Structure prediction request, 615 residues.
Amino acid sequence: MKKNVLYLLFVISALGAICSWVVGRCNGIVTLEENVETAWSQVETQYQRRIDLIPNLVATVKGYASHEKETFETVASARAKATQITIDPSKATPEQLASYQAAQGELSQALGRLLAVAESYPELKANENFLQLQSQLEGTENRITYARDLFNRTAQIYNTSIRRFPNNIVASIFGFERKNYFQSEQGVDHAPQADF
Amino acid sequence: MKRINSLLLVFLCLGASVCMRAEQYTIESVPSPKERGQEFYVSNPDSVLASETVAQLNQLLEQLDRTTEVELAVVAINEYANTYYSTYDFALDLFNHWGIGKADKNTGVLVLLAREARDIQIITGSGIEGILTDAECDRAIDAGFESLKENDFDRGMLQICQHLSDKLLSDDNRTELMFGWKPAEPDYGMSWAFIFGFLLMALLSWLAYKRLNGKPGQTVEDIQEQSKDLQTGTGCLAFLFPLPIFLFYLYYRYARKHVQPVPLNCPKCGQLMSLMTPELRKAGQLTRQQEAEERLKAYNFTVWHCPTCNVDETIKRKGIFFSRYEDCPECHAHAMQVTDRKTLLEPSYKADGKQQCTYTCHSCGHTMEKTIILDRLVRASSSSYSSGSGRSGGGYHSSHRSGSFGGGRSSGGGSGRHF
Prediction:
């Protein structure tokens, strides 16, 4: 009778060991998933930083090249579009991610055109404020690249982790899903060139 | 003609000597400043920079590393190998070869000066590009450009590094650099602790189950005896996970106290046999020798009796004093013991001693005498001395030669038997 209690204790302890292992693995995957979400928020922060820079830049350029209306409009509409789209990377489908990227890519291209316009105005090119903004824009583009790279790296670590044995068993039980990567796209990762 | 030849020779020698003196560096051959120590950041193998400048730069850059975790490496060389397409290629390769900057943040900067090519190149790590943009690096070079142009490399490099350092040390940038986010590593420590704890409990309960599960024929005493070690062991392990193991210990102790004997089945009728405790035993269930052995605690006997078939099953188990006795050559009971010792010859440092032992059997009363050799004395530690004198154990010649005795023995077959 007492021996049976011990046998039961053995079975419970063995199950407890298995459960703690599963919980540990699960928590590990959650940590990695959190990393991906934080990395995503870094990407968004940097994109937002770029969006915040635009009004100043446009205002400065306008002071010297007020009749380049078309360019300003393109920038304004691209900015509005990029501001509207926000996505949650944990639920984003590849299509949503692609449309987000496309909107940001459009903004990059519009900014590139804006800076190209500035090339033909020597006074603007010499303006200290403009140079400052241009450098800040470049820095932000660099930060975006780095943040996107970091996002892809953390997503890759997460994806590898949930596909590897034995984590894949735990991941399939608890429904952890693969994260999509940022695809390198034509125009998206083209930072405006600052030419001195 | 001859003059031209000799002039040519002079030029050749001159050229050769220049080549010997100034190495063309590859990324592997540039000496890393970290080879000299963690507080060095400047590699200046050709003495392009004055030693005071190098010291000044090291100081500045160490300060920068400490406050912003940015590793800024300065390299000043005469020339790099012509296998590199440009100074940029060389500098980028060198940056990645050395791995400048903290690995998880990629905050490294390389400032490279190539004197022959008259090139200055700044390479930034990917994590720092937001702050040190290409435009900003260009401005840094602007800061030292005039000096470099006038061949004042010391001043030029100081100005460039100072500019970069000032930029990185501004409040906003320092915050960004120091408190930048980095991915967290999953921590499995806690789960391993739980797994270990549960596995330990599983092991303990399995062992307990095995221990308390007696085999047929085992009495309460038998089971308690075989389960004693785990109780002590569990008590010792309690420091690992005090509460669960202590509770387990209490339960185990309780269960041990209340174990049941496991009766044998009768070989004839198959029914359970009953245990004959020493009080219940009838005469003749144990032989005289067995009774003597049990009395001396050389063996324990468990007698199971089937009342219907009148069959006995006796289980023999070594007792606590088993090793104190020897087998009697007469009645074969394990009950013979040394009862008297007579020293015939005291052992000395030169020769072995002799001792006559009288053995008596506690079962049949048979006596016999044996002469044993006492090992000669050895001048060593006190323990081997006392053992060597043979006062306590006696023992036979051959079985007594253990590794702890160093001295060789002269007489071979000294032992004899006398009855």
